[in-house]
Amino acid sequence: MNGATTLPVIDALPSAPSLAIDCELAATWLQAFLEDELIARRGIRNAVVGLSGGVDSAVTAFLCARALGPEHVFTIRLPYKTSSAESLSDAQLVVDALGCNDRTIEITPSVDGYLQHEPDADARRRGNIMARTRMLVLFDQSVKLGALPIGTGNKTERLMGYFTWHADDAPPLNPLGDLFKTQVWALARFLGVPKSIVDKAPSADLETNQTDEGDLGISYAKADAILALMLFGYDDARIAARGFSSQEIGIVRWRVDGTHWKRHLPTTAMLSSTAINEFYLRPVDY
Amino acid sequence: MKLGIVQFKPRKGDVEANLAALGEVFAQLAAESAPYDLIVLPEAALTGYFLEGGVYELTLSAEALALRLADLWRTKGGAKRPVDLAIGFFENDSGNYYNSAMYLRVGERDHEIVHVHRKMFLPTYGVFDEERFLSRGRRLGAFETRFGRMALLICEDMWHTLMPTIAAIKGARAIIVPSASPGRGLGGDGELESVKFWHELLHAQAIEHGVFIFYAGLAGFEGGKGMTGSSCVVDPRGRTLVSAPALGACVIRAEIDFGEVDLARANLPLLGDLNAVLPDLLLDEDLLSHTTATLPPRSPE
Asked: A-B interface: how many C-beta pairs under 8 angstroms?
């Protein structure tokens, strides 16, 4: 070897779980999931999707339309009096794009019917009541329409516990629950969800000017990256080494660790050796 | 040898409905002009895979299953068409429960269980919980068929390269792999990462040992977990002769020339090399000191 020659050095890439997904494959897989679970297993051809105007419910409606045909998709807008006008008009874009059945049912009288007895309820309680009222309507409409309500929750909000228990998480099928929010955005672009829905700041729209990222105290891009590293088994030091502050890691870990209960059925006292889901073990589709 | 692999999509937990559906598949296959020699079905073909405690209600003895399958084949058009069948099932052997696969010869009037393999590597991690409910098989055997020597390996059995290695050393020229693989990983360049991994694994094992691999994947969704079919036939040079999509039921077929095994091994004599070196590897005292495994009592071949 000539002493004057410098050999090229090739560095290893830092290893980290990728959040990039093959959107076409994801769409195909989720379409097959909906077909199998709805039609093949349950013999149900109709789906009810609560349309918020946000990206999660839009993607869910698009997937249902692919699996069942738009004539079998019943989207329902469930505004409360404080809901933004933009939520309703963005939801209309989804309906127009798909040509599905659509209906708007005001939840204000129902929610206020209860809240008139609880004038001191804070924003969190009011939000929970709205979420649970929406689910009440979606389940009832499903019975009426011979449909199944389809969940819209994504993996990020499930992990962060950013949802109302026994409300957003209640529907028996959830196509997006194993996709992080940033992956739902990618899938939305692939499916052709209207741009204004994909590009706007995500919001639960339970209070005026509310945004998810404001509530959570961290951006979805950072939260998803940290969550992916956490689920990969990395400790805080390893996550920090990939460019995240201890404050950011702390926010995510605190939310995940504090909300395990929200990702499970209610805790039941075990008193026998035939306790359901402890000894009596049958998969959900058995 | 005319091979058919049935990528079967069972109805969860309903053996009778699945036997009826399999009967329709048998009728389709028996009606082809050229008769099949071997038909392979996936792991847990007649029940679905994720059964948890329900598995005990759905087990069959090998003898009972063999009788049902032989009768089914003959009544669905195969009466004059002797065939060999390989199928994965949950086995009850006098109250011992296994994830098993059977190789069955079906004649015009009789049938014979040629071999039953009990899955040795029971995945019990992550989404899998097999060893909570089932016992492990204790022996990997190769067996004679009218087409040559073969071995059965079930799903994770195939993920340990030692297993196909031992099968090949014991003379297997084809390895039948009934499998049930829940798909995961969306970063795999057009196919799921778990499917990609399977293909790489089967490709490498076929080349290393100069064996055919008949991979039969279960299809359908089970409680949100999508089984990734992807059945395939890989030849002894690692070429995929035919492969099925991940989703949905189908049949793949191939004409198998076992002479390819000899040609591949002549071209790349890795198995011969291994046989020569293996004694040195196994007699290495340092190897045994690195394993804490207790060797099971030997039973005669």
From this structure: 64
